[in-house]
């Protein structure tokens, strides 16, 4: 199965547990893009709409493009009261509209699923001259390196899903490389901004969150079951509370 479609399997759980985004982020996008009444906006990969309402509330004409059929139906129903909302069920690569016609194209923790050699040129083609591309990702980190529960969970992951890749919370190389990639496709006035949030989970809630991630859902059933059991028990043994620290990286640029 295409990993992108794993999100489509349980839209309600995805909507409940995936994080939203801070008001400051939306304020920065809206100020940079200068969009409002009647401006044309495309959201790539709406999911269940964690990043949609602030733009609809500005009376933009928003078209959401979503690959997952169930997610598309979920968000269509969720935002049915908005007359300025249109849902388009397809991959962004297959979506078509008039060239040079869009004021803002944005994507929340989804654009990495599109091959960059297809995604960036298409965005550039659809945007008006001076139009804005806004890309942002939420990257959650479980507690801190000196946290005993964090270390225990990392050992559990290494047991069931070994990896030599170390995830870096403040990954400056990652941010700079993404900026360079955006610029390499002809975008200008690029800006990167970071935002930080904190969430607290019980063991049961954290397992529900894990089941919104494609790499977790695609694990073999026996491994997934054991991994979840040990993580659940570790959190319960630590007072049934787990801190998750979110870093959101936002990239703004113009055509």
Summarize the structure.
With about 260 residues, the chain is α/β, with parallel strands linked by helices. It has helices spanning about 10-15, 25-35, 55, 70-80, 115-125, 150-160, 170-185, 205-210, 215, 220-235, and strands at about 40-45, 60-65, 85-90, 100-110, 125-140, 190-200, 240-255. The longest helix is centred in the last third of the chain and has 17 residues, at about 220-235.
CA-based shape:
globular
Please report which band the strand proportion falls in: under 5%, 5-15%, 15-25%, 25-35%, 35-45% or over 45%. 25-35%
Largest sheet: 7 strands, mixed
Count of helical regions: 10
CATH class (first level) name:
Alpha Beta
Tell me which CATH architecture applies here. Answer: 3-Layer(aba) Sandwich
Percent range for helical residues?
Answer: 25-40%
Q: How would you state the average pLDDT, rounded?
A: 90
Regions with pLDDT < 50 over 5+ consecutive residues? Answer: 1-9
What does this structure look like?
The chain is α/β, with parallel strands linked by helices and about 260 residues long. The chain has a single domain, classed as Rossmann fold. Helix content is about 40%, strand content about 25%. The chain has a 7-stranded mixed beta sheet, sandwiched between helices. α4 (about 70-80) links the parallel β2 (about 60-65) and β3 (about 85-90). α6 (about 150-160) packs antiparallel against α10 (about 220-235). The longest helix is centred in the last third of the chain and has 17 residues, at about 220-235. It starts with 10 loop residues before the first helix and ends with a strand.
């Amino acid at each position: 199965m295409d990993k992108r479609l794993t999100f489509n399997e349980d839209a309600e759980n995805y909507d409940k547990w995936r994080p939203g985004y801070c008001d400051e982020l939306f304020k920065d996008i809206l100020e940079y893009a200068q969009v409002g009444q009647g401006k044309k906006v495309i959201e790539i990969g709406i999911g269940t709409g964690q990043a949609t309402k602030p733009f609809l509330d500005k009376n933009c004409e928003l078209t959401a493009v979503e690959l997952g059929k169930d997610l598309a139906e979920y968000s269509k129903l969720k935002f049915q009261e908005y007359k300025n909302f249109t849902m388009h069920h397809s991959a962004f690569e297959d979506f078509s509209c008039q060239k040079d016609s869009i004021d803002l194209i944005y994507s929340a923790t989804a654009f990495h699923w599109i091959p960059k050699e297809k995604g960036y040129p298409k965005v550039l083609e659809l945007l008006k001259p001076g139009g804005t591309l806004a890309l942002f990702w939420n990257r959650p980190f479980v507690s801190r390196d000196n946290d005993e529960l964090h270390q225990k969970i990392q050992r559990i992951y290494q047991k069931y899903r070994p990896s030599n890749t170390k995830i870096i919370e403040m990954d400056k190389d990652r941010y700079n490389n993404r900026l360079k990639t955006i610029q390499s496709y002809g975008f200008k006035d690029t800006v990167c901004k970071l935002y930080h949030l904190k969430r607290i989970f019980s063991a049961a809630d954290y397992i529900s969150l894990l089941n919104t991630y494609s790499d977790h859902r695609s694990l073999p059933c026996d491994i997934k079951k054991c991994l979840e059991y040990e993580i659940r028990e570790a959190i319960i043994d630590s007072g049934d509370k787990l801190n998750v620290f979110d870093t959101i990286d936002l990239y703004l640029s113009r055509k």
